[in-house]
Design brief:
Layout lengths: L1 E5 L4 H9 L3 E5 L5 H8 L3 E5 L10 H9 L3 E6 L5 H7 L4 E4 L4 H9 L4 H8 L3 E2 L22 E2 L41 E7 L5 H15 L2 E5 L5 H6 L15 E2 L4 E4 L8 H14 L4 E7 L3 H6 L5 E6 L13 E6 L2 H11 L3 E4 L3 H12 L11 H63 L5 H20 L1
Parallel strand pairs: 1-2, 1-3, 3-4, 4-5, 8-12, 8-13, 9-11, 9-12, 13-14, 14-15
Antiparallel strand pairs: 6-7, 10-11
Helix pairs in contact: 1-5, 6-9, 7-12, 13-14
C-alpha cells in the first residue's frame, strides 16, 4: 500500500510502515501535501496534527483538499479542532494521540466502518474558546479547560411525539437503548437544521442556500439529501459515490465548503433506515442541514430527532397544520397578509420570500434561542404572549412604586411613634421633678430650682405632643 505521511515528525511512522511492507513517503508542510500525495501515487494519507503550516495554507485547508481525493487517517488529540472538521468531511479513520505506531498500522490496514467512527467520536471534546483579547494563534489549539464543550446530540422533541428528555433512549434504530446526552447548559453549538415542506414546497434550494451560509460561518457544513424525490441530488449533479447509504461512500466536497450527501439510488430497504441515522449521528455537533421533502414523510420524522431547529417551506394557499418537533420558522411566497395566515395556521413565526441566506440563518438562530425574528409575522399565541408580557412589566412597575410609597409611609409612622414616646417620657420626667420640688417645700428646703426645671420639661413635652 502506498502511504503518504503528512507530519512534522514522520520518522517513527515511516520506519513502522517500511517494516510492515508499505511504500511510504513523507511531507513536512501543508502547502505541498496534496502535490506530494499525487506524485507518490498514494492510496492513503496519514494526516498528523503536528504538521507545520507552510506557504500560508492552514491545516484545515490541507485536510479538506486531501479528504476530497484520498482516504485519510487522522492522527490527532481528541481536543483538536481537526477531529470534528474531519468528521464533517467524511473521514472515518481516527487514531487519537498519544498512540503507538502499531495503532496507526492497525487502523491503516483495517478501515473503520460508520458505526466504529461514530463510537470513536462519542467522547471527542472541543477546546473552550479563548477569552476575548487572548485568541490563540491561527492553526494552534489549546488544552481543554474545565467546562470544555463536548460533541453531544441535542435532546429535542419528535414531531407529534412526546419530548424525549436527557438520559432516555431512542425509540428505534441502531442506537436503540442508548441514552442521548443532554446539551451542556448555556452553550449553543452550530445549528442542525431540518428543511421540510408544509404542503407543496421546494426544500432543495433553501437547504443549499443555508448550507452555504453555515459553511461560510463555520468553515464546513454537512448537507444531506433526505428527500425521496432527489431534488437536491439532481440540482447538484451528485452520484451514487456520495450516497449516504453507500458502504464506503463519502460526501462530495463542494467549492464553498459544503460536504454533500446524495439520495441513495435503488428501492428502499431497512438498511437505508440505519444508514441515514448513522450519517446524521456522525454529523451531530457541527453545522448540519437536512433537506427532507414533505414534513409528514418518514425521513423528516427521522431527521427531526437530530435537528434543533426547523425551516418549514410552504406555498400560498396550502393547507397547514400546527407544526411539532423542534422550534420552527415558516417561509412562504407572498405578502405580509399571507405570512400572517401561515403564522396563524402553523402556529410558528413566518417570513416572506425573497430573503437572503444570511438573514434566514439569523432568523433560524433566533427561533432556536426562543426569540421571534425581526420582521417575522407572529402567530396569535405569540402576540398574546407579548401583550401579557407588557402587562406584566407594567404590573411590576406599579408594585415597585407602591412598595416605595409604603416604605416612605412606614418610616414616617415610625418617626411619629418615636416622637410620641419621647413626649411621654418628658411628661413623666416633669412629673418626677415637680414631685421632688413639692417634697422639698414640705421639708422646708428651697424648691424653686426644681419647680423651674419641672416647668421647662413640661413645656418641652407639650411642644413634642403638638408636633406629633
Amino acid at each position: 500500500m502506498r502511504v503518504c505521511v503528512v507530519s512534522g515528525e514522520p520518522e517513527p511512522l515511516l520506519e513502522a510502515l517500511a517494516q510492515a511492507g508499505h511504500e511510504a513517503d513523507d511531507c513536512l508542510g501543508t502547502d505541498v501535501a496534496l502535490a506530494v500525495a499525487e506524485k507518490h501515487g498514494s492510496d492513503v494519507v496519514i494526516f498528523c496534527e503536528s504538521v507545520s503550516e507552510t506557504g500560508g495554507v492552514a491545516r484545515r485547508d490541507a485536510l479538506k483538499a486531501l479528504a476530497a481525493r484520498y482516504r485519510v487517517v487522522l492522527l490527532a488529540a481528541k481536543t483538536n479542532e481537526l477531529v470534528p472538521y474531519a468528521a464533517a468531511l467524511g473521514v472515518k479513520d481516527f487514531v487519537f494521540t498519544p498512540a503507538a505506531p502499531a495503532a496507526v498500522l492497525h487502523r491503516l490496514e483495517n478501515p473503520a466502518t460508520g458505526e466504529e467512527a461514530a463510537e470513536s467520536l462519542a467522547g471527542v471534546t472541543l477546546p473552550h474558546p479563548p477569552a476575548p483579547g487572548l485568541q490563540a494563534p491561527a492553526g494552534e489549539t489549546e488544552p481543554l479547560p474545565p467546562g470544555g464543550r463536548r460533541l453531544r446530540l441535542p435532546a429535542i422533541r419528535l414531531p407529534s411525539l412526546k419530548r424525549r428528555g436527557a438520559g432516555e433512549a431512542e425509540p428505534d434504530g441502531e442506537d436503540a437503548g442508548k441514552p442521548l446526552p443532554a446539551r451542556p447548559a448555556g452553550e449553543q453549538p452550530p445549528p442542525a437544521v431540518l428543511v421540510a415542506a408544509l404542503g407543496d414546497g421546494d426544500t432543495a434550494n433553501p437547504a443549499l442556500a443555508l448550507a452555504g451560509e453555515l459553511a461560510r460561518r463555520h468553515g464546513v457544513c454537512v448537507l444531506v439529501d433526505a428527500d425521496a424525490r432527489g431534488d437536491l441530488t439532481a440540482l447538484l449533479g451528485l452520484g451514487g459515490e456520495c450516497s449516504w447509504a453507500g458502504e464506503n461512500a463519502r460526501p462530495r466536497l463542494l467549492p464553498d465548503g459544503v460536504a454533500a450527501w446524495s439520495w441513495p439510488p435503488g428501492p428502499w430497504h431497512a438498511g437505508k433506515d440505519e444508514a441515514l441515522r448513522r450519517v446524521l449521528r456522525l454529523s451531530a455537533g457541527g453545522p448540519l442541514v437536512v433537506s427532507a421533502g414533505r414534513a409528514d414523510g418518514w425521513t423528516a420524522l427521522v431527521a427531526a430527532q437530530y435537528a434543533d431547529v426547523a425551516l418549514w417551506v410552504t406555498a400560498p394557499g396550502a393547507s397547514l397544520a400546527p407544526c411539532g418537533g423542534p422550534p420552527g420558522l415558516a417561509v412562504t411566497a407572498g405578502d405580509a397578509r399571507a405570512a400572517r395566515r401561515v403564522a396563524a395556521e402553523a402556529g410558528i413565526p413566518c417570513v416572506t420570500l425573497p430573503v437572503d441566506a444570511a438573514t434566514l440563518c439569523d432568523a433560524l438562530l433566533a427561533v432556536r434561542d426562543g426569540a421571534v425574528p425581526a420582521g417575522a409575522a407572529r402567530p396569535p399565541r405569540l402576540r398574546l404572549a407579548a401583550v401579557a408580557a407588557a402587562l406584566g412589566r407594567a404590573a411590576r412597575g406599579t408594585r415597585e412604586a407602591a412598595r416605595a410609597a409604603a416604605g416612605a409611609a412606614g418610616l414616617a409612622l415610625r418617626l411619629a411613634e418615636l416622637t410620641f414616646w419621647v413626649a411621654v417620657l418628658a411628661v413623666l420626667g416633669a412629673g418626677a421633678v415637680w414631685a421632688a420640688g413639692w417634697v422639698a417645700q414640705v421639708l422646708g428646703a428651697d424648691g424653686g430650682a426644681l419647680a423651674r426645671a419641672a416647668d421647662w420639661v413640661a413645656a418641652l413635652a407639650g411642644t413634642l405632643i403638638r408636633r406629633w
